[in-house]
Amino acid sequence: MTGDTTDDTDDPRPGGETSGSADGESTRGDGGTATVGDLPTTAPDEDHEHGLPPKSSIKRWLVTTNHKDVGILYIVTSLFFLIFGGVLAMLIRVQLLEPGGTILSDMAYNQAVTVHGLLMVFWFLSPFAFGFANYIVPLQLGADDLAFPRLNALSYWLYLVSGLLLAISFFQGNSFSGGWTMYAPLNVPVYTPSVGATTTVFALLLFTASVTVGSVNFLTTMHRMRAEGMTLRRMPLFTWSILLTVWMMLFAFAALLAALMILSADRVLGTMYFATESPGGSLLWTHLFWFFGHPEVYIVFFPALGAMAEIFQTFTGRRLVGRKWFIGAMLLVALQSFVVWMHHMFLTSINLQIKTLFMATTIGISLPFDLMVFALIYTMIKGRIRFSTPFLFAFGGLVLFILGGITGVFLGAVVLDYEFRGTYWVVAHFHYVMVGGVTGLVGGLYYWYPKITGKMYDEFLGKVHFGLYFVGFNLLYFPMFVAWETPRRVFDYPEAFVGWHQVATVGAFVLGVSFLVMFYNLYASLISGEDADACPWAYGSTAEWAVPSPPPLENFPGRPSYGGGALEFLDRGRTTTDGGETEAATDGGVKAGGHGHGHEEVSHASIWPFAIGIASLFVLVGLSGVRTGNVAYPATFVGGLILLLYTLVAMTRESFHGPSGPFGESWPFEGVENTKLGMWLFLGSDVVLFGAFIGSYVFTRVAYGWQAWHVVPHDPIPGLMNTYILLTSSFAVVLAMVAAQKGNRNGVVASLAVTLLLGIGFLGNKGIEWWELYHEGEWVATSIETSTFYLTTGLHAAHVIVGLIIAVYMLVRAWNGAYLDDDRPVEYFGLYWHFVDIVWLFLFPLFYIL
Amino acid sequence: MDTKLYTAIYVVLFVAATAQVLVEFAGLAYWTALAIIMVLSLGKAVLVAAYYQHLRYEPRSVTYVMVSGLLAALALTLAAAYSIT
Amino acid sequence: MTGEFAVVMQVGEFVPRGTRQAVFQQIYWVFLVLGTLVGVVVVGYMLYLAVAYRAGPDEADDDGRPKLGEIPQGGGKGRKLFLSFALSAVIVISLIVWTYGTLLFVEQPASAQEQEELEVEVTGRQFQWVFTYPNGHQTTGELRVPKDTRVRLGVTSADVFPNFGIPALRAKTDAIPGQTSDTWFMAEETGTYAAHCYELCGSGHSDMNADVVVMEEEEFQQWYENTSNGSENGNGNGNESA
Questions:
Q1: Does residue A662 register a pLDDT over 80?
Q2: Which end of chain B has fewer CB atoms at under 10 Å, N or C?
Q3: CB-based burial label for A803 (10 Å; 0-12, 13-18, 19+)
């Protein structure tokens, strides 16, 4: 991943130099501004696509890196997974028609329940929202594209491939059957031995990788690339909701990544973290999972809230009441979401003090939502409300969310939670909240459909959809409150509830049919709908409505600016993309080239994100079955790994020019150039990843008895040697950077070579140590102590290996004279390498001395 | 930046690492030794981050991002370990 | 914090106590009534606003309406917003605080020492429940308890992570390997109650049930004394307390 982060260094100048950006106004005095009113409203010709194949060509969708294309890909793919998850939901509802089940076996039912949950939460809800985020956020910010367009495409392909992996898992025995919460120790191979279950875990792992890449990309874009005058406080609400969502994603998904990596190790390497015998193993999983899982609730809900706020403003013709408090409330929720996770664990053996604490934080997090709900409601006052389909869905979504919120208060009372735990009350509650969110996003789909397609949907069918949807939804989920004593994920229930469950099943089909209406409407309108204006809605106010529907590839007719008090498009003035001819541009090896090439030089196509996705598929499918003894699996794994390395190097070497400055507003990261910020954000998530690994170790050791713990390496000296080696290698990277700054090629080459040798020495030393431990019978699966030792230091060693691969690449390039006029790649590599060093500074005492 | 400064920091880091192992062999009470060793680790980490990674010279917001990640991980670790009955 | 609650709790009647069924019923109904009330008021108000401010034919003044390309800004004043926010906060906080007293009681019902108690260890394994009595007697799939006696359950698991619950008696807790979670219940009527598993625990999850047989006290004593000498599979897991 880090290899990629360094490669998009196309920004020719650090943002710090550009913040003023007055030059755009000054260069062309000849009225180079356009106010929003006199914009062209027709879509541009297809031939104006900067070398991208036309939209009718399949190839376009494989190579595109443009945020709008990627947004469409996300939306379409997520809707596909909605159907997938929806069909599973139908199976569940049919099974529940009568107590004891109808059509599914035990295992089939468990898989249906599990994969339905996983699909809807991970593969539908978030990606659906991120389809809109991809499409709309850069427009609302006034950015030409995301900061790293190829990484954006990569996020998408990893997402798609992860979904394919999930589908593949059904064909490897069976898929995962332990619930979407994957509680331990049911999630280890002793209890769920199927290869498909491992593949499911990998699917989620890859999805997490996709999300991490995406959040780094979005955060860099949203913080660094806003139009002049578009300060954070002024950002539209949808964009605000996405900003907070991606911040939560950056940290929460890192914790999930840790949980999944440990689980993968338990499943493939035989570590014992979550085994029945592991002290605190089951609890460890619940902590890791819910530490991620509660922020995840807001991660899927916030975008819906943002979309609802936009729709409310447009269709009531009113600005949001208490806008800044609304934003403040969201911010508060985002922060608090990281300290409420144990309310999912009130019935575990956690102590009363901590229950009290988490009860208090849970009340705390519910209150800001009250404020947001009231803000939306009061926005209707004195409005000029039009009941178009988007508003119906936003309004309906708010009603459903209110009901979900009220029933959630029940769960906040610990005494009631004790009884509701594991019942349909919980199921009904979170469906009201989450599918309430979906309702808001469906509103968003209708709202932005004309913008994205340039066609108007059929209003009548839209209203039919809403009617069926709302009735179906309540028929489906409300009976679950009435029949709440049904145990969750069980298809045997008291006779008294038969009627209610049958009503719910009918509701499920009505809800399903309503989506058929939607698909028909959207499809037919695409073919024969009326052309949509740039702004088909009265009182649409945000920037996406100020550009044609669909917007041209380069988004804006000029440089967007809010400097004059409202959106205007200024003459681009001095253009900013670099020359682009030079091959060496890939690594940031090229300085700001020149002027005057205009927008044409911005790249929009790369096949490598797609290729990396395919390679990842092979790697993970291969890895899933390495323990089966079937040689096809390890062969696929090795082949995939080679392909992955090849495609990563190819993408790094490719000449690609993303959007470049100057950017208008970059608070609070002025002067931290895009790639550098991307690297730092990635490291921020890596802090949580390692933190969760170390936290798992500490937790397990405390559960075990801290001092009764057997420290695996009996001698700290090899560890101390490795500390010396890493410290020295960090120093060598610093020297490489200094040499690059001084233009001293030999210095750069020598320092990098020393770094490489020291890194190899580190790994060699570790290898010898592991070899000896192995011969003493202390191997990965020997005990919980060895499991934590090998896995945590192993993760660190993997980071070292990745660093060394990058070092080899850079050494070759340094030999050929790179970095002398631009030392930033060396500096950014250093950030990573020093981070790996810092991690070791903690692992060494924790695993060798204490 | 000054190579001398980098070198001086390197020396300090080297000494601190050695000191950690010496503390372990000094025969102090277990929890005292643990506290000293962890403080030394923290000190080294701060030095590397501040000077080798130039955090000192970046906008403070970058530091806040890293500290947030650290706090999140600490919250998880401490609350989870504390919850054990 | 606890000090405040202690005061509240001394108001005796105010904090629901008693059997778990009674406690749950009381709190649940208060929540349900208030929740419904709030829901009806809020949703009703929303509907009223939606109808009252629906767009009319008069498209006259667009003053103060959002304009395309404007800098996003807030509308209206926050006074009403904060009033309703404060109101909802008061409701939510007082509800939860009110139940906290009951939580303390449920967690620590020790004050009621008038009766003797029975302590049973419950072990979940795929896919059955094993009950171990103080004398070491073990049964599988059936728990016999006396009426009107507080039954304390120490629940754990021998393999995965199920959850033991007796819905009618409002007792429920997680069964976690290597951990013991406690819960208790008190049955006021004899009869057979169903116990279920409330956490997905594998293929047999749907059928992982047990019977809880509540007997008259003397009847139970009779049965229990017979078990001590001739238990089927009771080899005593060393449950010391009674």
A1: yes
A2: N
A3: buried
The boundaries of the domain holding residue C14 are 2-52+82-110
Answer whether A838 sits within 8 Å of B81, measured CB to CB. no
Distance from CA of A283 to the nearest CA of B (A): 9
Q: Which residues of chain C lie closer than 8 angstroms to A106, CB-CB? A: 203-207
**What's the confidence (pLDDT) of residue A26?**
35
A570 close to A558: Cβ distance less than 8 angstroms: yes
Is the model's pTM score more than 0.95? Answer: no
How are beta strands C181-185 and C150-157 bridged, if at all?
Answer: antiparallel
- Given this model, what pLDDT does residue C110 score? 64
Contacts of C27 in chain A (CB under 8 A): 413, 415-416
Domain CATH for A757 = 1.20.120.80
Between A688, A723, A842, which is nearest B72 by CB? Answer: A688
Please tell me which residue of chain C has the smallest CA distance to A541.
C68
- Judge: A354–B82 Cβ closer than 8 Å, yes or no: yes
DSSP reduced 3-state for A609: helix
Which of A107, A228, A353, A374 would best serve as a mutation to test chain C binding (most C beta carbons within 10 A)?
A: A374
C217 and C171 belong to one structural domain: yes
Q: Which residue has the tokens 């020297």?
A: A735
Q: Which residue has the higher pLDDT, A51 or A222?
A: A222
Q: Are residues C127 and C193 in the same domain?
A: yes
Using a CB-CB cut-off of 8 Å, the residues of chain A touching B54 are: 827
Give the pLDDT band of residue A27 (cuts 50, 70, 90). very low
Q: How far is A59 from chain B (nearest CA, A)?
A: 39
Q: Which of A186-200, A362-376, C7-21 has the lowest mean pLDDT?
A: C7-21
C198 is written with which tokens?
Answer: 């409330």
Q: Which domain holds residue A789?
A: 712-850
Q: Cβ of B21 and A255 within 8 Å?
A: no
Residue A460 exposed, middle or buried by CB count within 10 Å (0-12, 13-18, 19+): exposed
pLDDT of the residue at A18:
34
- Tens digits of residue pLDDT in A525-551: 999 999 999 999 999 999 999 999 999
Model pLDDT for residues C94-143, shown as the tens digit of each residue: 999 999 999 998 988 765 555 678 999 999 999 999 999 999 999 999 99
Radius of gyration of chain A (CA): 27
Other CB atoms closer than 10 Å to residue A324's CB: what's the count?
12
